[in-house]
Design brief:
Blueprint (H helix, E strand, L loop, with lengths): L9 H10 L3 E6 L2 E5 L7 E4 L8 H11 L3 H7 L1
Antiparallel strand pairs: 1-2, 2-3
Length: 76
């Protein structure tokens, strides 16, 4: 049985993605653009820490980042 991703704050998601090899390319206001050295597509995440992202939004971010849910939960 797979683990379910809980609602997470954007800062928690960013920390997990940085551990997965992404780096912050730039930040414009409250949006952070992440890049991975081996991937061509950049990933932009809103950094509004007053709110938590639902598990659906986190799943969409992980799909774009090409990271499985289990792998991401191990990084947290």
């Amino acid at each position: 049985m797979s683990k379910k991703i809980p609602a997470l704050k954007p800062s928690q998601i960013l920390k997990g993605l940085v551990k997965a090899g992404f780096f912050i390319q730039r930040q414009s206001g409250s949006h952070v653009r992440l890049k991975h050295p081996q991937k061509t597509e950049a990933l932009t995440i809103a950094r509004h820490d007053r709110f938590e992202f639902s598990h659906v939004i986190t799943q969409r971010i992980l799909k774009r980042a090409d990271i499985s849910e289990e792998e991401f939960l191990d990084l947290l």
